[in-house]
């Protein structure tokens, strides 16, 4: 990014409260906007902080004239919350509600035109919030988690059984109010980790490199108790209730969120745009696919939520 790019927007690091916990939210504002703009609210996927590649999307949207807000869930990244790396689906959905509410109060934002943007697990969250009645002007769900049972099935019985003891132990420790038992979020095939498809570790490495981060800059673990709940989380269940224009982007060889299940969910949404690309779960974030994926998102934004209503 050159200096001309940076001159087109400002970024401020702000905070919002979610059930009394302080959550970090970066606000990207276009320079020179003369009217209130639509806002895109963004968060990352499974146990991943916003610092990993989300700014690349935010910069594209803000240079196009949109206000963009990128937040970390409580317990992750730059947000507060103890213990660390605790993924609680109910809490994350509440964080989404509070982040959107905060966006509606930001100066220069058109409070009636808020877009929910989520990827992977957060793609499921924005679909869930929209299906529950959140008044989004539009939704963008990149490689979204839509069906828990399908996600568990694609994991495979052997890997599921290898993770189960840690999940049970961590749940017991939670009941006893002890510190979590953690598992790695990403690993190589055969590792005891949540995502161990052949493309997972190379994808992780590309994400870090293109985010100017190094291994160890952020924890890459998660409290194992979430593994007892992922299979029960089905954002696709309320897809038919989503009333706003929705973009879903699917990867044909996704080993985390299966393409066939994502497409079936997408077909339930009344006002749906679907793009399917060749590649795996980690490919949309980085070259060479990233420019294509983000341009589709920007084109959808300009159509569904234009700067001038």
Describe the structure.
There is one protein chain. Helix content is 33%, strand content 23%. It is an alpha/beta fold and 309 residues long. The longest helix has 19 residues. It starts with a helix and ends in a 5-residue tail after the last helix. Strands 1-2-4-3-5-6-10-11 form an eight-stranded mixed beta sheet, with helices on both faces. A three-stranded mixed beta sheet has the order 8-7-9. The chain has nine helices and eleven strands.
Short description:
With 309 residues, the chain is of the alpha/beta class. The chain is 33% helix and 23% strand. The protein is built from 9 helices and 11 strands.
Structural topology:
Elements: H1 3-6, E1 9-18, E2 21-30, E3 37-43, H2 54-63, E4 67-71, H3 89-105, E5 109-119, H4 121-131, E6 138-142, H5 148-155, H6 157-175, E7 182-186, E8 193-195, H7 200-210, E9 221-223, E10 246-251, H8 259-266, E11 272-277, H9 290-304
Parallel strand pairs: 3-4, 3-5, 5-6, 6-10, 7-8, 10-11
Antiparallel strand pairs: 1-2, 2-4, 7-9
């Amino acid at each position: 990014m050159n200096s001309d790019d940076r001159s087109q927007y400002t970024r401020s690091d702000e905070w919002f409260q979610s059930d009394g916990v302080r959550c970090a939210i970066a606000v990207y504002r276009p320079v020179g906007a003369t009217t209130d703009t639509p806002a895109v609210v963004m968060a990352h996927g499974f146990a991943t902080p916003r610092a990993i590649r989300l700014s690349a999307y935010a910069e594209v949207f803000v240079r196009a004239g949109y206000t963009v807000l990128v937040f970390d869930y409580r317990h992750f990244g730059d947000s507060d919350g103890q213990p660390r790396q605790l993924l609680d689906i109910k809490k994350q959905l509440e964080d989404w509600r509070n982040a959107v509410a905060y966006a509606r109060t930001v100066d220069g934002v058109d409070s009636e035109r808020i877009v929910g943007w989520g990827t992977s697990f957060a793609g499921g969250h924005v679909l869930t919030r929209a299906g529950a009645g959140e008044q989004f002007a539009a939704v963008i769900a990149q490689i979204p988690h839509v069906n828990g049972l399908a996600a568990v099935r694609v994991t495979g019985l052997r890997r599921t059984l290898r993770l189960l003891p840690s999940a049970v132990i961590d749940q017991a420790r939670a009941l006893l109010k002890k510190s979590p038992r953690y598992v790695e979020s990403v690993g190589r095939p055969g590792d005891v980790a949540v995502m161990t498809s052949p493309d997972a570790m190379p994808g992780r490495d590309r994400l870090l490199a293109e985010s100017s981060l190094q291994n160890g800059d952020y924890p890459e673990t998660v409290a194992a108790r979430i593994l007892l709940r992922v299979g029960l989380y089905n954002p696709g269940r309320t897809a038919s209730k989503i009333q706003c224009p929705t973009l879903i982007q699917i990867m044909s060889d996704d080993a985390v969120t299966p393409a066939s299940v994502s497409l079936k969910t997408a077909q339930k949404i009344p006002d749906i745009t679907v793009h399917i690309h060749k590649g795996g779960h980690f490919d949309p974030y980085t070259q060479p696919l990233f420019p294509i994926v983000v341009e589709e998102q920007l084109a959808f934004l300009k159509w569904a939520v234009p700067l001038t209503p």
